[in-house]
Amino acid sequence: MSPIVEAVPNFSEGRRPEVVQAIVAALSSVEGARVIDYSSDADHNRSVVTLVGAPAAVSEALFQGIARAAALIDMTRQQGEHPRIGATDVVPFVPIREITMAECVALARALAQRVSAELGIPTYLYYEAAARPDRQVLANIRKGEYEGLKAELEAGNPDRLPDFGPARLGSAGATVIGARPPLIAYNLYLTTGDVEIAKAIAKAVRHSTGGMRYLQAMGVLVEGRAQVSMNFLDYTRTPLHRVTELVRREAERYGVGIQSAELIGLIPEQALIDAAQWYLQLDNLTPHSILDWHLR
Amino acid sequence: MSPIVEAVPNFSEGRRPEVVQAIVAALSSVEGARVIDYSSDADHNRSVVTLVGAPAAVSEALFQGIARAAALIDMTRQQGEHPRIGATDVVPFVPIREITMAECVALARALAQRVSAELGIPTYLYYEAAARPDRQVLANIRKGEYEGLKAELEAGNPDRLPDFGPARLGSAGATVIGARPPLIAYNLYLTTGDVEIAKAIAKAVRHSTGGMRYLQAMGVLVEGRAQVSMNFLDYTRTPLHRVTELVRREAERYGVGIQSAELIGLIPEQALIDAAQWYLQLDNLTPHSILDWHLR
């Protein structure tokens, strides 16, 4: 087995399919790196791409994609609902197989340096790759968005200086690069149209307001149905099954149940196996118990 | 992807490790077939081996293993708790990947013919490969065990004639060969030492006494704890999660719960993913949702 890294670059373009396709083509142009999923949202004016492969190949593919996005997206004219500071807005590396988080941090730093040196784009390091504690949190780096960051850099605010590259924003803006564990986007639909119940449950279960440590959550209304929309930042420590049962219990408090669940994007298979093991109470389950493990 | 078949031969030897190892060595002697698991039980005087690989290679490896078992196990002297009629007692082929049940039936018939022709061992076809409806059920073929079958054949009972080979049993006995879906051996330990509760639950949930169609179950006492011991004959139609919850509900009826579950042998990964999907209510889960699927 050779090392496999995942990267999930976010681009500030979700309305012009030909631009998205050009960026995906650039991300697909390197032998050894493969785009396995991408989706665009017009309201957010944003696209999210998932690529996987050998670490050096993925880094090279990301560089090509970032260069293409810088050439095709003009942040001085870009508008959309989603917060953003750059054409390539954020690029997390994710360890998948035979690679450590520390190695992903090194990949993030090297790419951030190269992007600033060769493309003249200011870069910020975030999450596990952050060089300052406050930059572990993406929202802190993106505060004020493109326009606000541009103004603060022009005003010479030292607190907003990039980790690499020039202290001014061009039409490509700035790019945040880092490393994080696999993230799972998982939503629970409730048997009610009352979004206040979803909001109350989200507040009860998420980390920021006293809930589970590696969980972000918000209550939203989707096609007339209340939904608890969640990001699992580390499913090995805050697992899907425990949160699902916690949400179920909170929902019961309001006399409602869980109608269904949905994934946005991809899920590591281990997260599903962990859930099966927990619900079935299979204490002695190991990879060796799984037939398919022996076939690979 | 090339076709992969699994075979799970059962041998009537579980006390002499050197004999078991010699049989496993024979099963491992063919390029393209691989032994991935085996275990022996001294009380049952029986060993179960799991091998996987290309269909032709697995068939050849089975033939080598059957020949070795015939040379090393003398059924006229063999004793043990488990019902048996031959040195190699039963050999199911199981479709795993890129192979149909019909192809597994053809493999079973070809092997049964070869074993009888080249080794002089009478062979019976069972389950999906059965040539007569009553031989779909293994217990019907094995009725009376080695001694009883030998006597009936000597008495000329036409109902017990083998599908292939001579109508008499030598020291290697007879071998049952067939094809079946993947079988999962899954046990639930109850929070009680009262085996009568496990027996009542087994009776409630198993097919033979009115329960779930593809389920065998019995209640046993294991190290002082009541256990519902089960075989899932087709987990796609009678799944683990549904039966687990059914057993839980029956157990509640007696005021007890499920303490833990255990697997004997291997489980197809899909059975675990099915359970996770059901418990998490992930209606939209597909193989494409699973990151690892894209990495293979």
Description:
The structure is a homodimer of 296-residue chains. Helices cover 35% and strands 25% of the residues of chain A. In chain A, helix 2 runs parallel beside helix 3. Chain A folds into 2 domains: 4-179, Formiminotransferase, N-terminal subdomain (Formiminotransferase-cyclodeaminase, Chain B, domain 1, 2-Layer Sandwich); 184-289, Alpha-Beta Plaits (2-Layer Sandwich), CATH 3.30.70.670. The model of chain A has no long low-confidence stretch (mean pLDDT 95). In chain A, strands 1, 2, 3, 4, 5, 6 and 7 form a 7-stranded mixed sheet that branches. In chain A, strands 9-10-8-11 form a 4-stranded antiparallel sheet. The first copy, chain A, is of the alpha+beta class. Chain A has helices spanning 17-27, 55-72, 101-119, 138-141, 145-154, 195-205, 240-253, 269-280, 291-295, and strands spanning 4-7, 10-11, 33-41, 46-53, 88-97, 123-127, 175-179, 184-190, 215-222, 225-232, 258-264. The A-B interface holds A 4, 6, 34, 36-37, 52, 96-97, 182, 188, 240-241, 244, 258-263, 266-270, 272-273, 275-277, 279-285, 289-296 and B 4, 6, 34, 36-37, 52, 96-97, 182, 188, 240-241, 244, 258-263, 266-270, 272-273, 275-277, 279-285, 289-296.
Descriptive keywords:
homodimer; 296 residues; alpha+beta; Formiminotransferase-cyclodeaminase, Chain B, domain 1; Alpha-Beta Plaits; seven-stranded mixed beta sheet; four-stranded antiparallel beta sheet; 9 helices; globular
